Amino acid sequence: MLGFLPAPLQGSILFIALAVNTIFCSLLLYVVALVKLLIPIHSWRIACGRQANAIARGWVGVNSLGLKLAKNIRWDVQGIDALQPDAWYLLVANHQSMVDIVVLQSIFHRKIPFLKFFLKKELIWVPFLGIAWWTLDFPFMKRKSSTRRDMETTRNACDKFRLLPVTIMNFVEGTRFTTAKREKENSPFTYLLKPKPGGMAVVLNALGQQLHSILDVTIVYPKGIPGLWTFLCRNSMEIKVRVKQIPVTVDLLEAVTDRALRVRFKDWLDKLWDEKDKRMGTLLHQSARKADGVEDNRLG
């Protein structure tokens, strides 16, 4: 535990440790990338993919261990039983902070395949991480491109995802939640932005019955949404996560493959988001009541 240290020093130590781990694992992935380029054989590329995923899992494992040793995080997680590390999943979650990715990687480590998500093409130039993401077959999307081109990129990525078990992560709101964004787009939800069904529909269309299930993940920070630096500096934190497995049914697949039925898929997603919004309100209300109860006991 680093709680005895000043918050900025604690944050700096954790940041440096995470950076060193990231650079080390990225360099290992560079070796895999080089081999992958030099030997363009299909079976060899699959072997390289397995090795790259193993390195990525090691990276997450070290990061999670470091946070566990250094911080007092009070986890309240439900719904992660009966998950399979060798199955295909589509994971959808609300998005509030960069910390969301840390949370998802920590709670799902070795319970499901390594999480992969869509990135802006410009991020391929990020030092160390850009080539690492490419080696791991993260799909890169152009910032300014047509919807048709984005859908084609998604389909091509899903073709690669057929080869090895994977968890495709999709923040269907498209950006991080803020009250200003919610008001600007006139979102009907209290804690969420409007969900965008396009990318999720293409993944379902491309992978179909190969998906074991959809993981609907709800993340709540009862003490306020932290930025990454705040998260690293804060010694104590409470994080609540609820995971709901949704079967990939024939009706759901028909709703994304048949144009006449796509309105039904959008309605299904809106309903899912409405339930998530209510779930977040309940979790936050419960935490507030619990905090008030503790405060009342102290006063008594």
Structural commentary:
- This protein has a single domain (74-299), classed as Glycerol-3-phosphate (1)-acyltransferase (3-Layer(aba) Sandwich), CATH 3.40.1130.
- Helix content is 53%, strand content 14%.
- It has ten helices and eight strands.
- The strands form two sheets. It has a six-stranded mixed sheet, sandwiched between helices.
- The radius of gyration is 20 Å and the shape is globular.
Architecture blueprint of SSEs:
Elements: H1 7-38, H2 42-70, E1 72-78, E2 89-93, H3 99-107, E3 115-117, E4 119-120, H4 129-135, E5 140-141, H5 147-161, E6 167-170, H6 179-184, H7 198-207, E7 213-220, H8 228-233, E8 236-246, H9 250-257, H10 262-299
Parallel strand pairs: 1-8, 2-6, 2-7, 3-6, 4-5
Antiparallel strand pairs: 7-8
Number of helices: 10
Low-confidence stretches: 295-300
Structural class: alpha/beta
Instruction: Give the overall shape.
Output: globular
Stated plainly, the CATH topology is called Glycerol-3-phosphate (1)-acyltransferase
Beta-strand residue percentage: 5-15%
CATH-derived architecture = 3-Layer(aba) Sandwich
- Rg (C-alpha, Å): 20 Å
